[in-house]
Design a protein that fits this description.
Layout lengths: L6 H6 L5 E5 L5 H5 L5 E2 L8 E5 L2 H11 L7 H10 L4 H17 L4 H6 E6 L2 E6 L3 H11 L11 E3 L13 H22 L1
Antiparallel strand pairs: 1-3, 2-3, 4-5, 4-6
Amino acid sequence: MSKPKREHEAFLEGYKPALVINQSSKYFGEVSKLDYPRITPFDIGSDSYIFFQTEEQKQEYQRKMEGVEWGTYDFHLIVGETLGFPKKSVEYYARMRVLENKIGHYPDEERRDSVGVEWAGFFFSSHIDFVEQEIKWLFDTYQHEKAVGLPVSIWVTGFDTPDIPYGDFERMNVIVNRLQEHRKQKVIATA
């Protein structure tokens, strides 16, 4: 796997719409010294920040968050969309966080079906059954010169996968099929 682009780099290059970062991050100073609109505390941690590309984005985020409780489905949905993640993946993540809060532990469903995605400074979890569509959405949405051409990485815990060259959907499909087969074997082994 090649060295992935960091989230703050994608934000500073101008194509990642927002960035969540803590003061304890070694990259915080690099971002905070610039005059980006921000909100703190962003999260329940007092040292958390969310930075925006524009004041309009910050105001839109604040408008959407009015009356929204921390940790709810709507909270996760608004944050994920603001950070520029694909819609189905954001909805899936929000559902899993609500389920986790309800049952009191990490959902088995998420452990079974979730895949990680890294591309051009975007790091998020998705669902194995629609991850290819979500990556295509990323490629179509972020047509920035510093993003186009970068490889994408899809992974699950305990299963190594190679980087996928930008736009190589045939190879991506092969890897996703291998991950789906791996998932089926895990389900059979635990049954």
